[in-house]
Write a structure and sequence with these properties.
- With about 200 residues, the protein is mainly α.
- The chain is built from ten helices and no strands.
- The longest helix has 26 residues.
């Protein structure tokens, strides 16, 4: 007879990812052992393996859950039907909310991608590419005629991501600025005020 799944199975998986994210962000993937993760979860290694067969599976789940959430943001903002400028601003707000709200996962995504096996790394990069493509599309639609050269449009898009991606490293929730204010500042850097 097959073993039944605990009612809180998904909650436990998520808790493992939260603890692993914090450890990976602090000690790095290579500096974190499965025992470290199990200890942080108050669990045994064997219980951890019940949820994730390997440390690489945990790393992939941390990253994929984060980029999938960002891709969901793209879909949600796109579904609103807002004009491109407002859509881009709304998307930056959502991204920054997740970047600072899941700072450990963001740090892991930025720093540990090379520790994934090639196929899984490609999966993450493909999702990231979809996100970047969507932002580039909004940016070019928000500034018609400004980016006739797709290379320049991509460069401007990557500059925007370069501006916001590392926010989780320095942002403080109790600081002088909110994540929403920072999102507006990033928007204002790339989109001039409408006439």
């Amino acid at each position: 007879m097959a073993r039944t799944q605990a009612a809180d199975f998904e909650d436990r998986k998520e808790a493992i990812l939260d603890h692993a994210s914090a450890l990976f962000a602090q000690k790095g993937f290579l500096g974190t052992s499965v025992m470290d993760i199990a200890r942080a979860c108050g669990a045994s290694k064997s219980l951890l393996y019940h949820y994730y067969p390997s440390k690489e599976d945990v790393l992939f789940a941390v990253m994929s859950s984060h980029v999938d959430l960002l891709l969901e943001d793209v879909a949600a903002v796109t579904a609103t039907g807002l004009p491109p400028r407002e859509s881009l601003r709304a998307l930056l707000h959502r991204f920054l909310m997740h970047y600072v709200g899941a700072a450990d996962r963001q740090k892991v995504l930025l720093n540990e991608l090379d520790n994934l096996p090639a196929e899984r790394r490609r999966d993450i990069v493909e999702t990231q590419r979809k996100i970047v493509d969507a932002v580039q599309s909004l940016l070019t639609a928000a500034l018609p005629g400004r980016f006739d050269d797709p290379v320049e449009a991509r460069a401007q898009t990557m500059l925007l991501f370069g501006t916001i991606n590392w926010t989780s490293n320095w942002f403080r929730a109790d600081g002088a600025l909110t994540y929403a204010q920072i999102a507006d500042m990033a928007f204002d850097m790339v989109i001039p005020p409408a006439n």
